[in-house]
C-alpha cells in the first residue's frame, strides 16, 4: 500500500525541499567562484642551455641545472662555437621557478604535474623544416627534496622519446620563427617531491636522427599543476558530500528493507548509482599528502567513468520502467535492457581502454604518449570514435524512450476524466511531479553542457588583462559536481518508499474518497507495491 | 597713484616672465646636455663584462650611479632592482637592433651616434623618435618577461596583490601570475617614470613631449601583449578538454618589430592642447588608440646632412638599383644619383646543417655590383 515519497509529499514540503536543494546548489557554485582559485596553473620556463663536457653521456648521476650550488656552465645558442658537438648541449629546466626572491617548492596539495614542450625554431633558408619531421628527445627527470644538499639530484625517470614536429611559417625570412605547436612531454600523476629537474638532450646516434629539425632558437617548458587551493576546496566539498550521501544511502536501504517485498529494479539501480557516487566522492586525495600515489590520475578517471556510466544506465532504466510496454506480470530485470545498456558498456569500455593505453602506460613511463606513432594515433582515434558513436546511439535510445513515456502518459491521461475528481487531481499531481523530475534531469544535463561550452569559449579568449573577480572555471567544476550530488540526493530522497498509508494522506478528504480507496485497493496490491504512478499506468493498461 | 601701481605690476610681471623663460632655457639646456643623455645608452653598455665582478648586485654596489642617463626616479628603481639592469640593457640592445633591421634601406636607418644613442634626433618629437621609444619599451618588456621565465630574475611577480604576505602559501593556493604582466609593469615603472619627473608647464612643448613619450612607450608595451599568442592544453578526464589551461607565449621580437613598423607607417600627428592633453592636429583623422604611435613634429629632412638635427644624410649609403621601394636608389639617394662599383664577394653556399653545430659549407665567389648614393 505504499508509494514513493514524491507522490505522498505535499506541495509545500516539496517546495521547501527543492528550495533547500537549490540553495545548496547555489552555495556550491559560489564556493567555486569566490573561494577557490582556478583549477590549474601554468608556469612557463625557458631552457638554460648547459655545456656538457663529460665524455660519458649516459651517466644518470650527472645533472645539469642553472640555480644553486654546482650550477652548470651556460652557453648561448646564438653564437655557437665550432668546438662543440650536438651531444654537448643539455637543455635544463629546474622546477619550480623562484619568485619574489624566494625559492619555491612544490606542495603535495598541488597533486599533479603536466609538462608541455614548446620549441622555437628560427627560419633558415638553408635549413627548412620538412613536413612531418620527427624530433628525438632524450629526457631525464630528477627530483630533490627540501633539506637535501643542492647538488643531490636523484633520478626519477628516464626515456628516449619521439615527437612529431608540427611547424608552419607565414613569412619565410631570416630571423622569423616557425610557429610550432606545443607537444605534450610528460604527465606526473603525483607531485610527491619538492623540486624537479628535467634535462633534455637531442641525440644524433644515427645520421637521420634529429637532422631535419632546423635551427633551435629556444626551448621552453610549460608546467601545469593543479592549484593547491582548488584541491583544498575540492577535497572539502568531497568531505561534506561523502558522509551525507552515505547517510542518505543507509536511510534509503533501511526504508526498502522495512517493506515486505524485495527491492525492485529501479530501487536497485538507485542504490548502485548512490554507491557509484560514494566512490566518486571518497576523498582519497588526503592519501596523496602522505604517500606517493602516481595512479591517482587514472583512478580519478575510472571513478568518474563508473559514475557517469551508472548515471546513464539509470536514466535508461528509469525511462524504461515508466514505459510499460513489456509484460506487466513479470518483475523487470536488467536483462530486458541489455540492448540499450550495451551502448553504455561499449562507450565506457572503449574509453577505459584508451585511458589505460595513455594514462596507464604513463604510470610506467611518464613521458609516454599514444599519439606519437601512427598505430597509436589510429588506435586512440578508434576508441574515441567508438565511444562517441555509442554515446550518440545511447542518446537516441534515451530520447526515443522518453518520448514514448510521454506519449503513454498523455494516452493514459485521456482516461482521467472518467475518474472522480479527488483521485484525478492526485494522479495529475503524480504525473506532474514525474514530469518535473524529468525536467530537472534535462535541466541538469543542459546546464552541464552549457557551462562546459561557455568554459571552452571563455578559455579560448583568455588574456591576462581581463580582471574577472569570479573564477568561472572553478565555479563550473564545483557547480556541476554539486549539482549531480544534489540531483542524486534528491532522487534517493524522493524515490524512497513512503511509509505513509494512502488513507492517511486522504484523511482530510470526504468520505466518498474513502469508498473509492477501497475499490482501488485490490489493484494496488496486485501490482506488488511499486511506485503508484507505474501502478496507475498499469491499471490503465489492464483496463 | 593708480599709474604707479600699474607700473609696479608690469615690472613684476616682466620679471616673472623673464624668470620663467630663463628657467625654461635652463631646463632645455640641461636636457640637451650630452652628460644627461638618454637611458637608451644602457643598450650600449657591456654588462657581460661587469657581471664578472663579484658583488655587483649587492646592496652596497654603486652600479646605479655608474649607469649614465638615468633620471633620479630611474636610479631609485635601479637601486631596488639591481639585477634587472643587465636585462634592461639587453632589452634596449634588442630594441636598437630591431630598429636597425626594420629601417635598413630607408633614409633614416636608426644609426647609433655615440652616447646619446640616436643623437640630437632625440630632441625632435618626430615619427622616428616615437618608434624608438616604442621599440625600446617593447624590448625591455620582452627581456624582463623572458628573464622571469628562465629563472634569471628571482623577484618576478607572483601573487595578484601588491605583494603577498606569505608567498609560499599564496603560491600553493593559487599559483603565480603571468610573467608578461610583470614585464609590462616593470617597464612601465622604469621607463615611464622619466616622463613624470620634473615640473613642466601645462600645455607646453615639454609637457607635450612627455605625453607623447608615454603614449608611445605604452604602445610598445602593448605590442608585446598584442602579438603574444595564447596556447592551451586540455588535461581533463582522460585528457579531454573538460579542463583546459592556457598560457601566453611571447612572439619573436621580429614579429613585434614588424607590428610596430606598421604602427610607425600609420602614426598620427598630434598637438598638445592648452589644457595639457594630446589633440589631433588634423581633426579629420581618426583618434589614435593605445596601440598607435603619435608624434608632435614633422621629421627633419634625412636626405641632407645636418649635424645639429642629427641627420646623417644619405650620401655614401648603399642602395638597391632595381627596387622601386624606399631602399631603391631613386628614393634613397633623393634624386642625386648613385655610383656603381663592381666587387667580388666571397659567400658561404650549399650549406648542410645538423641541428646545432655542424655546418658544412662551400665558399662561392660571386661578382656583384654595389651601388652607393652620391
| Main sheet overview of chain B | 3 strands, mixed
Give the class of chain A from helix and strand content and strand pairing: alpha+beta
Helix content of chain A: 40-55%
CATH architecture title of the largest domain in chain A: Up-down Bundle
Order of helices and strands of chain B: HHHHHHHHHEEHEEEEHEE
Number of domains of chain B: 2
Helix content of chain B: 40-55%
The main sheet of chain A orders its strands as 2-3-10-5-6
If strands are numbered along the chain, what order do they take across the biggest sheet of chain B? Answer: 4-3-5
Secondary structure class of chain B reads alpha+beta
Q: What is the 3D shape of chain B? A: globular
Query: In one word, what is the shape of chain A?
Result: elongated
> DSSP strand (E) fraction of chain A?
5-15%
Instruction: Please give the alpha-carbon distance between the first and last residues of chain A.
Output: 20 Å
Q: Any idea what the radius of gyration of chain A is? A: 30 Å
User: Low-confidence parts of chain A lasting 5 or more residues at pLDDT below 50?
Assistant: 325-329, 462-468, 502-529
Overall CATH class of the largest domain in chain A: Mainly Alpha
Kindly identify the CATH topology of the largest domain in chain A.
Rhopdopsin 7-helix transmembrane proteins
Average residue pLDDT of chain B:
81
Domain Wntless-like transmembrane (chain A): 227-499
Domain Wntless GOLD (chain A): 48-226
Subunit structure (chain A): Interacts with wg; in the Golgi. Interacts with Vps35, a component of the retromer complex; wls stability is regulated by Vps35.
InterPro entries (chain A): WLS-like_TM, WLS_GOLD, Wntless
Amino acid at each position: 500500500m505504499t508509494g514513493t515519497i514524491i507522490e505522498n509529499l505535499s506541495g509545500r514540503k516539496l517546495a521547501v525541499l527543492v528550495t533547500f536543494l537549490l540553495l545548496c546548489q547555489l552555495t556550491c557554485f559560489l564556493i567555486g567562484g569566490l573561494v577557490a582559485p582556478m583549477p590549474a596553473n601554468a608556469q612557463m620556463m625557458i631552457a638554460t642551455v648547459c655545456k656538457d663536457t663529460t665524455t660519458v653521456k649516459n651517466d644518470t648521476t650527472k645533472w645539469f641545472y642553472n640555480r644553486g650550488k654546482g650550477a652548470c656552465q651556460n652557453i648561448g645558442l646564438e653564437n655557437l662555437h665550432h668546438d662543440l658537438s650536438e651531444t654537448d648541449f643539455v637543455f635544463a629546466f629546474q622546477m619550480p621557478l623562484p619568485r619574489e626572491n624566494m625559492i619555491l617548492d612544490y606542495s603535495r596539495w598541488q597533486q599533479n604535474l603536466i609538462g608541455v614542450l614548446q620549441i622555437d625554431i628560427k627560419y633558415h633558408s638553408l635549413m627548412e623544416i620538412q613536413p612531418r619531421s620527427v624530433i628525438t628527445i632524450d629526457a631525464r627527470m630528477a627530483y630533490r627534496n627540501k633539506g637535501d644538499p643542492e647538488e643531490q639530484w636523484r633520478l626519477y625517470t628516464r626515456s628516449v622519446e619521439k615527437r612529431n614536429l608540427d611547424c608552419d611559417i607565414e613569412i619565410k625570412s631570416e630571423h622569423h620563427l616557425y610557429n610550432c605547436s606545443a607537444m605534450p612531454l610528460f604527465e606526473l600523476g603525483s607531485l610527491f617531491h619538492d623540486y624537479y629537474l628535467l634535462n633534455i638532450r637531442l641525440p644524433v646516434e644515427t645520421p637521420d636522427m634529429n637532422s631535419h629539425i632546423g635551427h633551435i632558437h629556444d626551448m621552453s617548458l610549460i608546467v601545469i599543476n593543479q592549484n593547491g587551493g582548488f584541491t583544498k576546496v575540492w577535497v572539502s566539498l568531497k568531505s561534506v558530500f561523502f558522509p551525507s550521501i552515505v547517510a542518505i544511502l543507509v536511510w534509503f536501504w533501511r526504508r526498502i528493507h522495512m517493506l515486505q517485498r524485495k527491492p525492485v529494479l529501479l530501487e536497485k539501480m538507485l542504490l548502485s548509482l548512490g554507491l557509484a557516487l560514494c566512490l566518486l566522492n571518497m576523498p582519497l586525495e588526503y592519501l596523496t599528502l602522505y604517500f606517493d600515489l602516481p595512479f591517482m590520475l587514472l583512478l580519478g578517471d575510472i571513478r568518474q567513468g563508473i559514475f557517469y556510466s551508472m548515471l546513464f544506465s539509470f536514466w535508461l532504466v528509469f525511462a524504461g520502467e515508466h514505459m510499460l510496454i513489456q509484460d506487466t506480470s513479470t518483475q523487470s530485470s536488467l536483462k530486458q535492457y541489455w540492448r540499450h545498456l550495451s551502448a553504455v558498456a561499449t562507450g565506457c569500455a572503449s574509453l577505459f581502454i584508451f585511458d589505460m593505453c595513455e594514462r596507464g602506460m604513463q604510470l610506467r613511463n611518464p613521458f609516454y604518449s599514444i599519439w606519437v606513432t601512427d598505430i597509436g594515433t589510429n588506435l586512440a582515434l578508434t576508441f574515441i570514435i567508438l565511444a562517441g558513436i555509442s554515446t550518440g546511439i545511447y542518446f537516441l535510445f534515451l530520447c526515443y524512450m522518453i518520448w514514448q513515456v510521454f506519449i503513454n502518459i498523455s494516452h493514459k491521461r485521456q482516461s482521467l476524466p472518467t475518474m472522480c475528481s479527488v483521485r484525478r487531481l492526485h494522479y495529475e499531481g503524480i504525473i506532474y511531479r514525474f514530469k518535473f523530475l524529468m525536467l530537472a534531469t534535462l535541466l541538469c544535463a543542459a546546464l552541464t553542457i552549457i557551462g562546459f561550452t561557455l568554459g571552452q569559449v571563455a578559455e579560448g579568449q583568455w588574456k591576462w588583462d581581463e580582471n574577472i573577480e569570479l573564477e568561472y572555471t572553478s565555479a563550473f567544476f564545483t557547480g556541476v559536481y554539486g549539482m549531480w550530488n544534489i540531483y542524486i540526493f534528491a532522487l534517493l530522497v524522493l524515490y524512497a518508499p513512503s511509509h505513509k498509508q494512502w488513507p492517511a494522506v486522504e484523511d482530510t478528504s470526504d468520505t466518498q474518497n474513502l469508498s473509492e480507496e477501497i475499490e482501488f485497493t485490490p489493484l494496488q496490491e496486485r501490482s506488488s507495491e511499486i511506485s503508484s504512478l507505474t501502478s496507475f499506468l498499469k491499471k490503465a493498461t489492464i483496463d | 597713484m593708480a599709474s604707479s601701481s600699474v607700473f609696479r605690476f608690469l615690472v613684476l610681471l616682466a620679471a616673472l616672465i623673464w624668470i620663467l623663460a630663463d628657467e625654461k632655457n635652463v631646463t632645455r639646456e640641461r636636457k640637451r646636455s650630452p652628460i644627461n643623455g638618454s637611458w637608451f645608452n644602457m643598450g650600449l653598455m657591456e654588462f657581460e663584462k661587469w657581471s664578472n665582478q663579484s658583488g655587483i648586485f649587492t646592496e652596497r654596489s654603486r652600479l646605479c650611479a655608474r649607469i649614465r642617463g638615468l633620471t633620479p626616479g630611474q636610479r631609485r628603481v635601479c637601486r631596488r632592482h639591481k639585477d634587472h639592469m643587465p636585462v634592461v640593457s639587453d632589452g634596449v640592445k634588442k630594441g636598437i637592433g630591431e630598429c636597425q633591421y626594420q629601417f635598413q634601406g630607408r633614409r633614416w636607418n636608426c644609426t647609433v651616434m655615440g652616447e646619446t644613442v640616436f643623437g640630437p634626433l632625440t630632441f625632435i618629437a618626430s615619427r622616428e623618435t616615437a618608434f624608438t621609444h616604442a621599440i625600446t619599451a617593447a624590448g625591455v618588456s620582452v627581456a624582463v618577461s623572458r628573464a622571469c621565465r628562465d629563472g634569471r630574475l628571482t623577484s618576478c611577480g607572483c601573487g595578484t596583490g601588491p605583494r603577498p604576505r606569505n608567498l609560499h602559501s599564496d603560491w600553493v593556493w593559487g599559483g603565480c601570475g603571468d610573467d608578461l604582466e610583470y614585464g609590462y609593469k616593470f617597464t612601465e615603472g622604469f621607463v615611464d617614470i622619466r616622463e613624470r619627473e620634473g615640473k613642466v608647464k601645462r600645455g607646453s612643448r615639454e609637457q607635450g613631449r612627455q605625453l607623447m613619450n608615454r603614449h608611445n612607450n605604452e604602445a610598445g608595451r602593448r605590442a608585446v601583449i598584442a602579438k603574444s599568442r595564447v596556447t592551451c592544453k586540455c588535461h581533463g578526464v582522460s585528457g579531454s578538454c573538460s579542463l583546459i589551461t592556457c598560457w601566453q607565449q611571447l612572439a619573436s621580437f621580429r614579429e613585434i618589430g614588424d607590428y610596430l613598423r606598421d604602427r610607425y607607417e600609420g602614426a598620427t600627428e598630434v598637438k598638445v592642447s592648452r589644457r595639457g592633453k594630446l589633440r589631433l592636429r588634423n581633426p579629420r583623422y581618426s583618434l589614435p588608440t593605445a596601440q598607435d604611435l603619435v608624434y608632435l613634429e614633422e621629421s627633419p629632412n634625412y636626405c641632407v646632412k645636418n649635424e645639429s638635427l642629427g641627420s646623417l644624410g644619405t650620401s655614401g649609403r648603399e642602395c638597391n638599383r632595381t627596387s622601386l621601394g624606399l631602399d631603391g636608389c631613386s628614393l634613397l639617394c633623393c634624386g642625386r644619383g648613385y655610383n656603381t662599383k663592381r666587387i667580388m664577394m666571397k659567400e658561404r653556399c650549399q650549406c648542410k646543417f645538423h641541428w646545432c653545430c655542424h655546418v658544412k659549407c662551400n665558399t662561392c665567389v660571386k661578382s656583384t655590383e654595389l651601388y652607393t648614393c652620391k
